[in-house]
Structures
1.
Amino acid sequence: MLWLLTIPIIILTLFILYLLAIMPKLTSRPDLTPWKGWYFAHRGLHQSHKKSPENSMAAFKLAVEHGYGIELDVQLSKDKIPVVFHDYTLTRICGLDKKVCDLTLKELQELRLYHSNEQIPTFESVLNLVNGKVPLIVEFKVESHDTSVCDVVAPMLDNYKGLYCIESFNPLALMWYKKNRPNVMRGQLSSNLIKDKESGDPSLYFILQNLLLNFVTKPHFIAYNHLHSKMPSFVLCRNLYRIPTFAWTIKSQEALESSKKSFDFFIFDHFIPQD
């Protein structure tokens, strides 16, 4: 009979440990007042492959002109120059079967985005273009254990006068910022990675999609795939710990409206939000 009494204790203990594991930053959170009222254009306000492809200077210029915040991706070239590009490989956008980190900046800028006139921009050129006019969500692309992109990009952002925050799927990037730039607003990106059928280790994806490393990274916000807003860890972080939440990526007005009960801020794509 004793084992019957220990089962509830074990379950309760595991649940408490789970709540501690997903606990985000609770104190000294950044002031989010300046972020209120902004919609964020996913990889810029890209409208066509020919004129303003994703993560292009044209797309960023359009976002600024139309008064939208910008979400963008940053990673390093072979010669350690930060460039703005989403995929780790160049295949989808540039038709070249190589990784971004395999080419120097000069080699990267000889390529064109979707056969347009737009080239892969440097992160510096995007910062100069935006120049504080709209807020930035900077996603750090960290494919494995190499967080050197943080070492290179963080000093650039230190000198940037505009409003920005950082986010990443990789908890190592958040750990880097927690240690080296604790006051910079950092967010954990996630989704139901297993259901999304992302290629990789299912056990690792289970940990990431359930936000089980929040106790280490202590994010200031959670950016979650709006299609999976009912994931228990996300719901608990929002409703129990009251952490701010960003929805990605909203692709219709209907999806925007339905997401407002679960998210505070919205990253959009393929449509223009209506208030």
2.
Amino acid sequence: MSGEGTRDAGTRGRGDAETGDAGTGDVETAGIGPLSASPRPRVSASRPLLVQKFGGTSVANAERIRAAARRMVRTREQGYQVLAVVSAMGHTTDELIDLAQQVCERPDERELDLLLSTGETVSATLVAMALKGMGCPAISLTAAQAGIRTTRFFSRARITDIQPERIRKELAEDKVVIVTGFQGVTEDLDITTLGRGGSDTSAVALACALGAEQCEIYTDVVGVLTADPRLEPRARKLDRISYEEMLELAQLGAKVMHPRAVELGELYGMPIVVRSSFANTPGTVICRGEGMEVRKNVRGIAHDTDVAKITLAGVPDRPGIAYAIFAPLAEAGISVDTIVQTASIDGITDLSFTVSGSDLTRSFPLVQQVASRIGAATVDAADDLAKVSIVGTGMQSAPGYAARMFGALSEQGININMITTSDIRITCIIQRAQVQQAVQTLHAAFELDRE
């Protein structure tokens, strides 16, 4: 450990695929079949392919399933081949998890993944039925049938390869192909799931593997907004945003896109369009930042209320102590975010770090055990915190954004517990009860409601 004053080091951003990090981790680049080819091969030279992903709210009931099917038919009539990726209907995944926990307090991970995969299968088959009822040729495929191969980390698997021969065959027969999102299959043919938001990753990975023209993400919002409209009614839709900015927003709490999906899009140059399932509006294009229009340096405000802090006081300041603290957390699949270490006085320091609030019950006992071994004085935890962040690539070359952010929060009496930064974002840890006030304050301070 070092005693060079207070510092921070956000470790969640590029997490380890084997720790179960909910952030981006190792991007799925281990082959994914045709993705390694450049340029990406197109399914058909005469009819470009569009990949359309429909989230849980977009297929929540029979009416919405028919609406999604009609959108696919319209896209096909415009001269495109269509590959659709679907999530489970509404809150099906949560309901299945609850049911599993009623049967067994700690369900076996393999069996739980197999159970959860049924939600997307139901959606895919119903969409295919709706399309056929409209006279449109269609077929539903599970991720295994679609050739999506993954690692063996149940509930947090990573895509290792896509073998899309079956998809190509069905598209060549002029069918709309509907693939179950959120899942894949191991070499041993065990079903795995990709973690929350994994259908986004499925869709973008398939779009890249098949050389699609773009990947469209259909959801219950009109696009990527400058803030969560539930907290800030004046939030404005962005017409375009760079992969880098969208990745930061997604990692910091914006729910509209899964971080791993954005990473894949950036890696393979796949344009992603986020748009509403319920309105014919243009949506937001996620693409490379070069050549974008003149715009504000701060692009959006992100927040996350699932934050807890653990503090070790009286920690010996010597080599190997930081490893002793964080290695057990990594082995348990717990992602650590902001880390702050105070200056060393007489060889003693304090160390604070944040984890997801949902991980606190697992994290705290592990840290208590480590504290006892290394001779730390005390271990404390707080679970009433939140993160609020400003994001924008323009901040790299313009000074004063940190001061402006801190000043705006100070004027509203919002205390900052911890701070972490990157080239394009500044994140503050604050009290959870003040998160809406903080979001609205920063949205106004950086004039994000204006074009």
3.
Amino acid sequence: MAGLPLGDVVALFVRVFDQLRIDGYFHEAFGFVCVDTGQIDGKVRDVELEMLLSIRKNGLWPIHDEHRHYSEDDFFDIVEFLYQHVSKPIDGTYHSWNECGMHWETFNKVQGQAEYLKKVNAVLNHYAEQFELAASGEVLHKPEVGFEQIFDADIPSKDANVTSRLDAAVLRYRRHGSTLDDRRQAVRDLADVLEYLRPKVKSLLTSDDEKDLFNLANNFGIRHHNDHHKTAYDLSLWLSWMFYFYLSTIHVVLRKQQQSSK
């Protein structure tokens, strides 16, 4: 199934946003309108200013007026922005005058984000391109088929030199809007993690295999740049292969290290 184009997916998202807004999921952040007192402010009194400060963009709000002009990056920036400001209404008082409705007073952010994530991913599943909203609040490229579990697996290390670099590399590679340079840097970061783990790698691989592992990054225009590098290849395809190959290798090395330490 080909999936829907961007404009149709954005329109579908707007309907989901409307439903959540009516149900009170954005009242804490953006306030609401009361038939008696008019606009009641939420925590974010100027949404356009907050967007400018957080995502450095103008002209995306109000959603109903601007959504037809969204680029893919604009759309995903909105999705992420709203994730940071959604909260589930828990308790309040009902204002019966002229059927005004609930005035919510207590909210749960974690539950609100969980519900929002589920609904947004249901929308993104219809998109022709493969993206998902992660629990971290970022819209990411979906993993290649067969590699889904590696992103859910815990990193078997407490070494910040490993975990922080690994997390940063994965985010850099999968983040929406990532360029070929971003992906190259992500692969370079993974190669650096392997270099840090090289003493352990040497104990798991033969000398030739260990050399080949680092030859991939050193001689194919990833870590260093010189006129002897091999560059006549499909960079996008090559980076994808190297990213998953290095990521899988790091997980194997760390797990072997964990097993040997028990």
4.
Amino acid sequence: MNQPISISSLIDREPLRPYQWAIFLLCFATALFDGFDTQAIAYTGPAIVAAFGLKAGDLAPILIAGTLGMTIGAMTLGLVGDRVGRRPALLGGVAVFSIASLLTAFSTSTVQILSLRFLAGLGMGGCTPVLLALAAEYGCARHRGSIMTGVLLGLPAGAMLGGLLAARMMPAIGWQGVFIVGGGAPLLLLVVLYFALPESLQYLVNRGGSANASRVHRTLRRILSVPLAADTRFQLPESAARASVAALFKHGNARNTIAIWAVYLCNWVAWFMFLSWLPTVLKAAGLPAAQAPMGTVIVNAVFIVCAIPLSVLLPRVSTRKLLIVLLGLGIAISIGLSYAGTSWGLVFVLAGAAGLGIGGQQIALNYLVVGAYPTALRATATGWAIGMGRVGAIAGSAVGGTVLGFGGPGGFYLALAVPLAAALLAVMAIRINGRVPDGTLIAAH
């Protein structure tokens, strides 16, 4: 009887095929529209405030609703994918955020917008871990980090695309038009995904049965250079025992756990406060509403440009030292923005630099976790650290309007330095075990 073969070992010894690149492209496209819809409320915020006669701070519950939905979606849709398959989970997530975004365009009250943003957040937050897992499974180990980083760059790319659309077309199509595009386009993608996106091979093997085995063989024929025998049996990698949360506070890990949670929490407060409220802050400072979304475009463009060099640099340098530099840069940028006033050239230069000084940490943080914990605890440590980050994202989205109302644009920018300084102190308290040979980008949207 033939010995079972590991699917991952078969994929690892082959070059990347066009079929795999097509899967990565579909995952990237999903992330692109996910990023578009995630930031839609940020660059349409000023128009919504004007349309419904709101104060700037009244936008906070809507921002919180979307982020809360994303948090719950990320925690639940991955579990759904493990039970019913990654393909139906991803299709369901895209359908939810597409339809919710499309319906947002026809809202007649802020209560409706709030509810629909929560539903959209469920789909958006849930899609990211599922598409990330699918891309990782179809990628070979030697390129997996780059593949996942590339796929997830669809998130800021989508946010940048939405900002460009809002800046150029919102005067003609209104804020409703942005949501029509943000909901309609991924519905078209959903049709493509239905016919072209494969199921996870690992999931099919785990489910067993002759029909699933045939699907695995058909898919592998498009990846492997040498066809497999018809009676080939497959094995799944042994799943590691689930580490407990309590273990994060034992055997000398407590200091790192508290510090890392603080870094995630505080950095995400600053990043989401900045991203969610930037167009509104720019408008409050006197920039015409039609140009305010360009701030989001510039920030995300710099983030994308810096992401790939950072992902290449991180395995070769001390993550802790790099984070200290980035956080110091973010503090300086925040102070600079608070004094920039209406010197729009300087404002946009500094806002763009914030894509690295405040957003660049999003790329480096997962390396920090890997270097600070033993292998058996890394998955649990990463999951809970991201959970702390999501709490920070909700807090940042919530307080931005209040800070803007009390301190104006200058006070808003200066307030960003507070969580960044707290994150800097927390990084200094972390003990790193050594350099990390490889890593992947964690989704931060």
